[in-house]
UniProtKB/TrEMBL annotation, chain A:
<comment type="similarity">
    <text>Belongs to the ABC transporter superfamily.</text>
</comment>
<dbReference type="InterPro" id="IPR027417">
    <property type="entry name" value="P-loop_NTPase"/>
</dbReference>
<dbReference type="InterPro" id="IPR003593">
    <property type="entry name" value="AAA+_ATPase"/>
</dbReference>
<protein>
    <submittedName>
        <fullName>ABC transporter ATP-binding protein</fullName>
    </submittedName>
</protein>
<dbReference type="InterPro" id="IPR003439">
    <property type="entry name" value="ABC_transporter-like_ATP-bd"/>
</dbReference>
<keyword id="KW-0067">ATP-binding</keyword>
<dbReference type="Pfam" id="PF00005">
    <property type="entry name" value="ABC_tran"/>
</dbReference>
<dbReference type="InterPro" id="IPR050107">
    <property type="entry name" value="ABC_carbohydrate_import_ATPase"/>
</dbReference>
<dbReference type="GO" id="GO:0016887">
    <property type="term" value="F:ATP hydrolysis activity"/>
</dbReference>
From TrEMBL, chain B:
<keyword id="KW-1133">Transmembrane helix</keyword>
<dbReference type="InterPro" id="IPR001851">
    <property type="entry name" value="ABC_transp_permease"/>
</dbReference>
<keyword id="KW-0472">Membrane</keyword>
<dbReference type="GO" id="GO:0022857">
    <property type="term" value="F:transmembrane transporter activity"/>
</dbReference>
<keyword id="KW-0812">Transmembrane</keyword>
<protein>
    <submittedName>
        <fullName>ABC transporter permease</fullName>
    </submittedName>
</protein>
<dbReference type="GO" id="GO:0005886">
    <property type="term" value="C:plasma membrane"/>
</dbReference>
<keyword id="KW-1003">Cell membrane</keyword>
<dbReference type="Pfam" id="PF02653">
    <property type="entry name" value="BPD_transp_2"/>
</dbReference>
Amino acid sequence: MSGSFSSSVAGRDIVALEGVTKRFPGIVANDSVDLSIRPGEVHVLLGENGAGKSTLIGMLSGLQQPDEGRILVDGKPTPITSPRHALALGIGTVFQHMMLVPTLTVAENLLLGGPWWQRPRTEELEARVAEITRRLGITVKLHAKVSELSLGEQQQVEILRAMVRNSRLLILDESTSMLTPKGIDELGALMRRLVEQGLAIVFITHKLKEAAAFGDRISVLKLGRKVGEIPPERFRALGEQAIISEIVELMFGKQKDDPEAVERPVRTVQAEAAPLLQVADLAVAPTDNAPGLSSISFDIRPGEILGIAGIDGNGQKQLAEALAGQRAATGGSVRLEGVAIEALSVGERRRRGLRYLTDDRLGEGTVGTFPVSINFFLKQVGAAPFWRHGVEQRGEIDERAAQLVREYDVRTPSLKTPVARLSGGNIQKVLLARELAEGAKVVIFNKPTYGLDLANTLASRQRIRDTAARGLAVLLISTDLEELLAMCDRLAVIANGALVGTVENTDDARTRIGRLMIGLAA
Amino acid sequence: MSIDTAPTASATALDATSGTATRRDILHRLLMTLGPILIALIIAGCILLAVGVDPLAYYGFVLEKGLFSPLGIQQTLTRMAPLLFLAAGLIVAFRAGMWNLGGDGQFLLGAVTAAASAPVLVQIMPSWLALTFSFLIAMAVAMIWSLIPALLRAYQGVNEIITTLMMTFLGTSLANVLVKLMFRDPSTTVPQTRTLPVEDRLPRLFETTITSGLLLGLAAIIIVHLVMTRTAFGLKLRIVGANPRAAVHAGLGVSGLTVTVFAISAGLAGLAGAVDIIGVQGNVRADWNPAYGLAVIPAVFLARMNGFAAIGFVFLLSVLSIGGESAARRLGVPNHFTLVLVSIVLIVLALAEYVDHRYNQSRKA
């Protein structure tokens, strides 16, 4: 499918990949990928986590070298040997994680990388920046410290940096993942203006809607292979919905209109059953960088999913941590099966069946350098049968870990692989396996699908539904309203550390929650 | 690289790392260790040439005295005893992510306590019991000394690198004061503690002058290694070291573990002082400070906090320090040239590590 559209006018390509293959121990990251990148086009690279997008970018930006195939720049085969070389060829990359020095000003950041023996040419830079920003219609505060800028503004600075260095091809790696919806729209408009000026853009994302909204040409990667391409002519001919369904077919081989919109299954929560988790007047003191909680009260019955909706940073993490015992509460009570647990330690709460699946998978959920097998048991260190008299039982650990790997479909080269080497979706499976394993009664999921690709998102949601179906009480914290509406029985809205209202998930729940979130009564 | 995982796309294949790969790793490690040492010897040789000393003669004396002469090797092995205890203490702390750099203060206080208690205790109880008590008292004093940085780190988040280093200055001075004011031997003019009679010291091994403290040191470091790698307690410490936030999330009592780590680490440093006094020196002079604690740190780093590798590096350090002292005397090189040599070895090893890392990176890329 891929070959049929790649063009005959190869002379117009700024950069073209021909049969590029890149192998890593145990996996083929890219398998003879062809790609043509042209001026005046936003070329969207679409693929799930681990499809090989990052590797492809690594080769274009000079960080990695292909094992087979070649890269043509202006029609000539050119090995891109280093990031510096890539810049010299006019290939600028804006990486997923910001690469600016937060303590320096924007101007200083833009001047970094100049020859060390020269005085920084500030005036020259200011003139160039003024010219570029005028053409693009953006404003950049040159003398502001980077740490004072919003993430969206920082990204504009990164794009500007690429422009100042005369890039002809701009690569944006998952650039929308940290932006607000408004920031995403602004980035889309900026990309449009950039390509109108003759730039080529490679835009990497795993969000279908962005691909359809911002792209001119879409290439779909799957397990390292390019499985399809939608060229501009065809792209313009199709409507957004048609494009999305075509991409979904390319990615998953199954036809679906919007794969994320799943019908909420009708579940019956036993209304008369005693609540598994009862929280009353829970309060947490605010800290320097986090809001406190005040008078949080709710019940969750067996088999019920209670959603916590709200804009990020309104106390969701504090709520989860206070329930799990990681954060000291200043008042209120938490009862598990009727027994007060607010004075118990993290470990004791867990032993009694309260499980907390953190949203910070690598930051606190796992120890990245430890093997997958040990990470399954981080919260049970010292417990039989994996430790006997304090001595590690490798056999027992490996056996149970292998079982969990199979049960939860964790894709890992081996049990000994450091967990940080797995993709986000597979790390999440390790956490799910750890928290849902035997003895769970109440499970707190904090943003369980954040940053996951579609397949892993759907799998995680199914796990959560199954968890509730087993008769456990589920608290689902998410900033994705669609997810909450698709999953929950009831939804509570959190704002400024307080629950401002709870609604049953009925047909008009969306509007009522929307009103609560912006501060109106439901 | 092994290609045995190839067809299993689901990648649940649970291959053990193949034997050849590990053997190659070991070879690679050996090469990466011995190669730089050789380069360092050449560089140090050039410096010796520059100051007009025959480097071959110097190295010859180092090896002869430190390794090949019967008396020298015995001294080398004896020197290892306190160094092994110190290394064991550092392994515990470093693996738990706590940089206890106060080893010298803890060592000296342990040494002074042992020197003060042992001669008194041997007069009132059997010698083996007296020595055991001396060891325990030395350990306890060093542990208490570590409480201040431990509590500051555990409950106030104060950086332990600063506090332990500062506590070392205080500890060194305090040891000095203790010798002069409290435990001074009235029968000598030199300010020093009372001397433990040779027959009451730790027995020597077989017919040699090697102290049996060497066996205690080896036991300590091997036990520490096994505890850190094979037990639940060791794993808890490693979790705290590798990701303290994950430790909190997993419900580990991080504050309590922090204090425990400091206590163990300092306790072992105190034992190092005690083993040197009870086994070899017999007394402490007021100005005595061998600064073993700082010398051992690089050896532990180079061993990557692996107990068995640390034994090897501690041995190397011992050979260099014993042999170097003698060679310096005989060739008129300043005694401190040993330190120059050790530091060149360290710098070259670190550079080799860096180059190797870059090479691996570029090969992966």
